[in-house]
Task: inverse folding
């Protein structure tokens, strides 16, 4: 993409207004806290102190709107405390230019580096630096500076107290995250009915996992229906895929495929009902035909072998979902339900207590085909009991605790320390923020406007570690600022409000900003600018002192932010090859763990497989985010063409999917080991690591070791078609990866210039 096209795209993106679910009660709560702090400050102190404390309460409420699963009162307290410290230290050094510039440089660098700990910490740190530049100009003495700092902390305390007293569906974000994960599984099941190779976006599962990380206090107070369903959704996904896949599941056509479609439709209905119950906190309402489908006695007569095993596991997992989503047992069926629907619903619920029983009662649990006639055993509700080997209790999902505020400090420090390397995009962002903050402050000080902090404030607030968001936010901030300043100035000119009226108008602007801030950055900046003009007007400043400098210096700050990225960029495009290699290596470790479990059976709940899956999923997400950012950068990739990137992404996705299908049929703990699986697992682990290194070096990966392991395995004999076909799918996907990157010019040139397939490239240039 050319610079002109990139600038045009970012300009258009700057003014996009999205439709989001509004939270009027939350906006009213934040505005009420702001109004209370301003009122107390005006009563006890001066309008200047009120303006300063208003910034503290305003920023504390903003912090609670960040995308974070940490308790909101903690975010408000941290925001108020850090702003108070910044204000006091900034005022102490403001009279000495060199000392203040040193403090500003340190604060700006740390705020830029804090993005290593996540966007929530980064946004809060950047906001504190920006607001500090305003608040240090309001006190007139050290004692007043202490008052201003204390009132900033008081604003955070007030907002935190309101969050505790008026939580307004405190668990709604967690409910929504879990419900979205269940709904995504339901949609996946429906799409698999018509497309056995349908894609699945794991983002809802990742969000639900993040939401499940709680502090010890939250864990004790969490509603029962939010516990356990996420892990079940994770385990249901491979089972759904294995049912639908023609290679490892039901044939493409025939009676088995028809029954699988019925089971997928029933699974989708149950998962949708569970999602609604979790989201609303209401009793589970089950669809009677779907419940009847899950309890159909002749499933064992229609389905055989691996697909029957998958069907039994799906029924057991859905029973667990029903039990988890409705722990009080309040589930109902649709009004037009069959007379026996309630009994069938109870039967499905009871099957949750026999989750492991459903697996152990199936012959061939270790991978062998069922014995003749075994699949015809009666399995209906009236079937006689049959002896079963003792089943192991299901493995409980580990509790994922989130560190408290004190425990978070070393975590953030470690994340920041890990980014202190030359190739870090976060470190480059920190350097850019520091340079722009210092240069903007010096330019604002030298210009005759006064209030020179507007330039560095605007720059710090719009800068992000990636190109697209920095440029779009710069455009949006200037446009929103221009309109907001002139709107607020018009109100001041027409009404000439008193101090109290200005305060009320400022609170109204803040409330509208809280309400609409997630619809678009330009919208939020309109109300922020009006809020600041009204607040400074309450402090005694004339509009003629605010409007010209705010507009001009905001433009200067935005231009500085944009220029800094052009001069010292951190482009994502040249790193695409490395991101792809990281994903390949992570997917290889996941596949190796799955295959190794056939050699050393540890049961479907083995934590090593789950951990490898999470790492592969994180690497996939990092690749997708990098690809999305690179699509709008004004640079051209010389290491991986866009066509090759798309083909390689599809191939690695097929490789991961094959591993997931094999995961759905993992043998139980204590089952007979599969010969040759250990050798194949080791081959997958070593060749994908080597293949990742070859990708980084612009060489085409080779998979000879995997082929040799499969050939040796075939010589020994593989008893289960699931294992052998899955292994063949893994190799085919790896060969597709090589074919995809081979078409990219740098890889083709490297291959043509090297003496041997595994030799070093004759020439290579850095990205």
Result:
């Amino acid at each position: 993409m050319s610079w002109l096209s990139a600038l045009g795209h970012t300009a258009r993106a700057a003014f996009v207004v999205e439709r989001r679910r509004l939270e009027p009660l939350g906006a009213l709560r934040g505005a009420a806290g702001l109004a209370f702090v301003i009122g107390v400050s005006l009563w006890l102190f001066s309008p200047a102190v009120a303006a300063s404390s208003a910034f503290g309460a305003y920023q504390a409420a903003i912090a609670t709107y960040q995308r974070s699963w940490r308790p909101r009162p903690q975010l408000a307290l941290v925001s108020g405390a850090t702003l108070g410290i910044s204000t006091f230290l900034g005022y102490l050094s403001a009279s000495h230019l060199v000392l203040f510039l040193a403090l500003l440089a340190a604060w700006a660098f740390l705020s830029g580096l804090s993005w290593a700990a996540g966007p929530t910490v980064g946004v809060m740190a950047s906001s504190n630096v920006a607001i500090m530049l305003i608040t240090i100009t309001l006190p007139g003495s050290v004692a007043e500076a202490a008052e201003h700092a204390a009132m900033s902390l008081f604003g955070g305390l007030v907002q935190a107290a309101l969050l505790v007293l008026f939580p307004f569906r405190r668990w709604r974000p967690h409910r929504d995250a879990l419900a979205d994960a269940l709904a995504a599984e339901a949609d996946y099941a429906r799409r698999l009915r018509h497309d056995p190779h349908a894609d699945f976006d794991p983002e809802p599962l990742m969000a639900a996992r993040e939401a499940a990380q709680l502090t010890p206090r939250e864990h004790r107070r969490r509603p029962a229906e939010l516990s356990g369903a996420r892990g079940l959704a994770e385990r249901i996904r491979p089972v759904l895929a294995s049912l639908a896949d023609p290679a490892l599941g039901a044939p493409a056509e025939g009676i088995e495929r028809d029954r699988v479609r019925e089971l997928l439709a029933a699974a989708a209905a149950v998962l949708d009902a569970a999602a609604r119950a979790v989201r609303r906190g209401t009793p589970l309402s089950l669809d009677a035909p779907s419940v009847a489908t899950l309890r159909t006695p002749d499933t064992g007569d229609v389905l055989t072998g691996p697909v029957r095993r998958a069907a039994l596991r799906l029924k057991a997992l859905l029973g667990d979902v029903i039990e988890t989503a409705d722990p009080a047992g309040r589930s109902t069926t649709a009004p037009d339900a069959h007379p026996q629907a309630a009994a069938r619903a109870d039967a499905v619920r009871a099957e949750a207590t026999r989750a492991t029983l459903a697996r152990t009662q199936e012959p061939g649990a270790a991978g062998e085909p069922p014995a003749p006639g075994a699949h015809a055993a009666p399995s209906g509700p009236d079937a006689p009991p049959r002896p079963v080997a003792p089943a192991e209790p299901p493995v409980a999902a580990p509790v994922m605790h989130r560190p408290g505020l004190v425990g978070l400090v070393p975590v953030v420090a470690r994340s920041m320390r890990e980014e202190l390397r030359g190739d870090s995009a976060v470190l480059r962002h920190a350097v850019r923020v520091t340079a722009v903050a210092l240069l903007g402050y010096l330019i604002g000080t030298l210009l005759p406007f006064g209030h020179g902090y507007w330039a560095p404030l605007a720059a710090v607030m719009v800068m992000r570690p990636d190109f697209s968001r920095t440029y779009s936010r710069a455009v949006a901030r200037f446009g929103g600022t221009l309109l907001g300043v002139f709107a607020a100035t018009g109100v001041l000119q027409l009404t000439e409000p008193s101090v109290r009226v200005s305060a009320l108008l400022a609170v109204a602007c803040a409330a509208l900003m809280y309400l609409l801030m997630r619809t678009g950055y330009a919208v939020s900046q309109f109300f922020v600018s009006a809020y600041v003009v009204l607040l400074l007007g309450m402090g005694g400043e004339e509009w003629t002192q605010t409007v010209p400098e705010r507009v001009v210096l905001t433009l200067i700050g935005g231009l500085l932010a944009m220029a800094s990225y052009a001069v010292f960029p951190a482009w994502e495009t040249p790193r695409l090859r490395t991101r792809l290699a990281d994903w390949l290596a992570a997917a290889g470790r996941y596949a190796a763990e799955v295959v190794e479990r056939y050699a050393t059976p540890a049961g479907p709940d083995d934590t090593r497989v789950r951990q490898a899956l999470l790492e592969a999923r994180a690497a996939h997400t990092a690749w997708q985010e990098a690809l999305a950012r690179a699509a709008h950068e004004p640079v051209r990739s010389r290491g991986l063409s866009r066509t090759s990137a798309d083909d390689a992404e599809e191939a690695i996705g097929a490789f991961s999917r094959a591993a997931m299908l094999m995961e759905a049929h993992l043998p139980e703990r204590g089952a007979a080991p599969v010969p040759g699986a250990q050798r194949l697992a080791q081959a997958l682990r070593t060749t994908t690591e080597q293949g990742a290194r070859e990708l980084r070096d612009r060489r085409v990966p080779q998979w000879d070791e995997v082929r040799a392991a499969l050939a040796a395995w075939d010589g020994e004999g593989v008893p289960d078609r699931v294992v052998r076909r899955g292994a063949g799918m893994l190799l085919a996907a790896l060969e597709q990866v090589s074919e995809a990157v081979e078409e990219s010019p740098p890889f083709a040139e490297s291959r043509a210039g090297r003496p041997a397939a595994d030799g070093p490239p004759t020439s290579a240039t850095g990205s």
